[in-house]
Design goal:
two-stranded antiparallel sheet; three-stranded antiparallel β-sheet; 7% strand; 6 helices; mainly alpha; 198 residues; Transferase(Phosphotransferase), domain 1
């Protein structure tokens, strides 16, 4: 088996409050991950374990890679077992935790959790036990990110809220749609920053 050598490291170090990447960089990275997921979903492959530890970033070349498709599954209903819970609980969608059939929207929820964490250094759902964590993901809204990072732009908050919607049909319809929304937000923020600096 030949494997690609990846330069850089995963995004876990950038999920700490005192080591966050600049927001434009975070948006650029997450948009590219959303694009990659859109491509995978187009091939009927769901990753099932999207989280900062599975996103490699090389600042030198500004390269982003999604890794660890180890528990990815073909989404044909004949090949997808329900009742199995695979992935990392803090990043799982409500439907993934319940053992329901998983499709691409579940990866977008996990990417929303990752964006939340990369933007503020905290997870949107926490619990003292696995049962409490699972209950909160399934039933409660995420911790208001503005209570952690009050200066976060409204378009970023809106993207996170849509990605973390409990109902699948209320999330982005595809990775491509999520990437487009992120890039529109980033472009608007770049314009507003230029306006302020004049």
């Amino acid at each position: 088996i030949a494997m690609e050598f990846l330069k850089g490291k995963d995004l876990v170090p950038y999920t700490k409050e005192d080591n966050l990447l600049p927001l434009p960089q975070v948006l650029s990275i997450v948009a590219r991950v959303a694009d990659a997921l859109g491509y995978a979903h187009g091939l009927h492959v769901v990753h099932r374990d999207i989280k900062p530890a599975n996103i490699m970033y090389d600042p030198e070349s500004d390269t982003v890679k999604v890794t660890d498709f180890g528990i990815a599954r073909i989404t044909d209903s004949s090949k997808t077992k329900t009742g199995m819970v695979l992935g990392t609980p803090s990043y799982m969608s409500p439907e993934q935790l319940s053992g329901a059939k998983i499709e691409g929207h579940s990866d977008l929820f996990s990417l929303g959790v990752s964006l939340y964490q990369l933007a503020c250094g905290k997870l949107p759902f926490v619990g003292d036990s696995m049962a409490q964590l699972m209950f909160r993901i399934a039933n409660e809204p995420p911790t208001d990110i503005l209570s952690i990072k009050p200066d976060l732009p409204p378009c970023v908050v809106a993207i996170i809220q849509q990605a973390l919607a409990k109902k699948v049909e209320e999330r982005f319809e595809s990775g491509v749609a999520m990437a487009h929304a992120i890039r529109q937000c980033a472009a608007a923020l770049a314009v507003s920053v230029q306006g302020e600096s004049k």
